[in-house]
Design brief:
The chain is mainly α. Helix content is 63%, strand content 3%. The chain has a two-stranded antiparallel ribbon.
């Protein structure tokens, strides 16, 4: 892949995801990292090691997603069990993958070279979480993450 093609693909992916989530990154390299699954042909972005692809960002995004959902639940009179079920339903892989596909985020994921066909549920779900983690790292602001979650129908 030539450098120009790679750069064009990167710009297209960053712009496309920013339009979908209605958030503009100060540091687009964080979003570019979020779009790389483990084994994707990119191992270093802005001096960050990507041997695990977007998994580190996905772990962060999962924690932020849960924090926002629990903050939303906490102010209600709903029982703890309802809060747990809400967390599982909204934050579960099946729902996150559905959200990613419904909004077209899966079209911008950089897969492992051995992946063919439709991306798996876990891959798309991890990428949605990684995007939320990227928003957090870009601004360290739960309001920005909450706005993206609302845009995606997660909050």
């Amino acid at each position: 892949m030539s450098g120009n093609h790679f750069t064009a693909k990167k710009r297209e992916a960053i712009h496309g995801v920013e339009e979908i989530i209605r958030y503009t990154f100060q540091d687009g390299s964080i979003l570019w990292e979020a779009l790389h699954v483990p084994g994707a042909p990119c191992y270093d972005i802005a001096n960050r090691n990507l041997s695990d692809g977007n998994k580190r960002l996905a772990l962060l995004g999962d924690a932020i997603l849960k924090t926002v959902l629990i903050e939303n639940w906490y102010g209600t009179l709903d029982a703890r069990g309802q809060g747990n079920r809400h967390l599982s339903r909204i934050g579960g892989n099946a729902n996150l993958a559905d959200v990613g596909r419904r909004h077209g985020l899966d079209a911008f994921i950089n897969p492992h070279p051995g992946q063919f066909g439709a991306l798996g549920t876990g891959t798309v779900a991890d990428t949605v979480e990684a995007i939320l983690g990227a928003v957090w790292l870009d601004r360290s602001d739960s309001a920005s993450v909450r706005a993206v979650m609302q845009t995606l129908g997660l909050a």
